[in-house]
Predict the structure.
Amino acid sequence: MSTSIRTPVLADTFGPSAGAEVWFKRAVLVALGVAALAVAAKIKVPMWPVPVTMQTFAVLAIGAAYGARMGGVTLLAYLALGLAGVAVFTGEAAGFTYMAGPTAGYLVGFVLAAVAVGALAERGWSRTVPGMVGALLVGNAIVYAVGLPWMAYLFAAEKGMVWVVQWGMTNFLLGDALKLALAALVIPGLWRLVDRSRG
């Protein structure tokens, strides 16, 4: 019976890898990841037809850099902070009411996407640009696969599915493509730096 072999992710390449110290390192990385997500959500790049935030970039990059388990934990910690009322999302709204609104499906999708991209990174996909592109496409597809049905549940009867698809996905595809291209270059680029430092 064959078992899959986990290859290291970027978070594994520095600091302690065993003992109590590794748990401290992981706690610090989760905290840094949550902070990065909160900052990325506030960054708005003017674009047509809608401004683009860097939130999805941070979600997928954290999944690739941290791996499935720690990427998922980081996203859950981020959502828990938002649920507690801390304004870590795009805009100033937070808390249960905000998280149960139109963005609910996308927020759940963020967790699943980070886990999926992290799992692919643990199979070596994050080391090359083509592999990273594939992982990011999977992650982005997951975000929409969860987010759009919730948008449809809330708005399709009143506004129609064309409106749901436009405002739930189509308007954001150009920005997504640019963010995915950036992440596809950054993560393998960091791997090249790690490899050079090793030898």
About this structure: The chain has eight helices and two strands. Residues 162 and 183 are 30 Å apart (CA to CA). The radius of gyration is 17 Å. The chain has one domain: 16-193.
